[in-house]
């Protein structure tokens, strides 16, 4: 039995939206990065985007890895594989549908397909595309390290301007991704509303870290890179 129907897309009424629905674009551009661009970075992509911030999401892994039926049998896809195609491959039989719905993987694919076509790999992006980001949020220390290493290896762009790279260490599960998506929004919102990002970012992040220490032991790392 096959379940290869296309994923439903949100529908909108015809005509122009009312003027009250228009919101100014954020002055800053945000990049959010996890390993496979399907859980932590996609949660942040949705949360920041819904708040009106300009945001794109990426992964740094060599492949997109999703939980399989056992820890030794993950579902592996190449970056650039459409989320819809991933969803279909794990929705072939009723048993697949039941299992991958229960572990939340089908829902992750559905969310991804509603936001963009496919996972994007940070290291494969053109420098001109990623240099537009003022702020990059990585959701794990090794991902933070991979982003910084990649930026240091790239040839400088013509503009050669600072990028503020921040690590919000987050366990790779949907519950923690949802919690940290809100944390990322709070931090990004403060950075969005500062008067001079390059002068104020370090102080804002330090203050945010102190506040978070009273609530949860979250590790925040920060480094300025140029591209």
From TrEMBL:
Region Disordered: what ranges? 1-23
Looking up Gene3D superfamilies in the UniProt record yields: 3.40.50.2300
GO molecular function, one example?
protein serine/threonine phosphatase activity
Q: Name one Pfam family in it.
A: Ssu72
Instruction: Quote the catalytic activity from the record.
Output: O-phospho-L-seryl-[protein] + H2O = L-seryl-[protein] + phosphate; O-phospho-L-threonyl-[protein] + H2O = L-threonyl-[protein] + phosphate
User: Any idea which UniProt keywords this protein has?
Assistant: Hydrolase, mRNA processing, Nucleus, Protein phosphatase
A GO cellular component annotation here is: nucleus
Q: Does the keyword ATP-binding apply?
A: no
- Annotated InterPro entries: RNA_pol_II_suA
- Chief localization: nucleus
Domain of life, per the record? Eukaryota
Main enzyme class:
hydrolase
Q: Which GO terms describe its biological process?
A: mRNA processing
Q: Keyword DNA-binding, does the record have it?
A: no
Q: What is its EC number?
A: 3.1.3.16
- Compartments reported by the entry: Nucleus
* Similarity comment text for this entry: Belongs to the SSU72 phosphatase family.
Primary role: Protein phosphatase that catalyzes the dephosphorylation of the C-terminal domain of RNA polymerase II. Plays a role in RNA processing and termination.
Q: Write down the PANTHER family for this protein, in alphabetical order.
A: RNA POLYMERASE II SUBUNIT A C-TERMINAL DOMAIN PHOSPHATASE (PTHR20383)
Spell out the protein name for this chain. Answer: RNA polymerase II subunit A C-terminal domain phosphatase SSU72
Q: Which organism is it from?
A: Entomoneis paludosa
